Amino acid sequence: MKKSICVVGLGYIGLPTAVMFANHGHTVHGVDVNERTVRLIANKELHIEEDGLQERLELAIDSGRMTVDTKPKEADVFIVAVPSPIRPDKTANLEYVRQATKDIAPYVKKGDLIILESTVPPKTVENVMLPELVATGLEIGTDLFVAHSPERVIPGKVFQELVTNDRIIGGINPESTRMTTELYQSFVQGSMHETDATTAELVKVMENTYRDVNIAFANELARISQNIGVNVWEAIKLANYHPRVNIHLPGPGVGGHCIAVDPWFLVELDPEQAKIIHLARRTNDGMPSYTAQLTADILSAKGIKDPKIAVLGLAFKGNIDDMRESPSVEVVEQFRARGMELTAFDPHIKENNLAEQVQSLEEATGDASALVVLTDHRAFKELDPSAITNVRNKIIIDTKNCIDRAKWEAAGFDVYLLGDSKN
Hints:
The protein is α/β, with parallel strands linked by helices. 39% of the residues lie in helices and 14% in strands.
């Protein structure tokens, strides 16, 4: 049966989710506190970059099945997809979740379903959402149903993974779980794995923490490899031929709204037990400083004084425009702290997010002492090094192992990799 759905939060998860439901026959009302975001979406314009989103948004709006506003309205289902960031002290900021729940409470009626999609610390549904829903006057679990079904998609492949990925469905009771499973079966082809809300919250945080710990291991291997004269990229590739080994890849740090954030939820929840998790977070958070110092050491060894750095890539991941928790921002800060002149360029990011950001590759590379690749955008992989003629020194430092080393060396560039025996 088709439902009326109110989606609160129209960002990288909420907007794709809203248009998917609208394009599968449901009536959707999207809500965001940002008036500019609402205005753009109403005009079928995007405020985020995601493959396939433009045409799906146009279909949803033109069909009349999707509307947007800054205020909620009555619906059968409310989906909360708002940010759950960490504060500077590494504790979870759940005020967005709390406020979104408070905002929808006046519009909730008997029989409605409320789903939290935001990634949150365990017990958030129980301790943050349910107390706000008491204001509805409805008996929770009998008149009002609540569940957590965390998003499990990756930017750049959101629509593919919304359909094909399995979903975790955690209700506050069996009926909440059943209703949520039935709703997502509108378009999800993956399996539905039913559990309770707190377990679902922990599962999502576990998934991203696993990846963070694995990346920290890879970053430690990169630093060791550099010290002993081994190319870590080759070593990891060979190790992963083992049928029970899957080492992730190193890099200048970890970014995004999940992997760089979620492990802190577990550290906050139980700091005495989360020792490995805490160390992994510190290791990955230390990579921007390591990257900046590596660059400084390479240039110093070559006798280059007063260098100018061209930073290539500000997004946390290739081929997207998402800068949330991007390590590139901290690498830039570390270059500043070392008194280095720099420019920064990202073909996917149009707004000026940093004082050093420029809008063309030519401007970025002009008089550069070194190019430092921090994001593995396709545009950087496909660069023709022979066309880059305005640099001061032909040096490129590839922290993502994404360029064709032989091609750049043939063009006269000295090529350095993070975790490379040449460094």
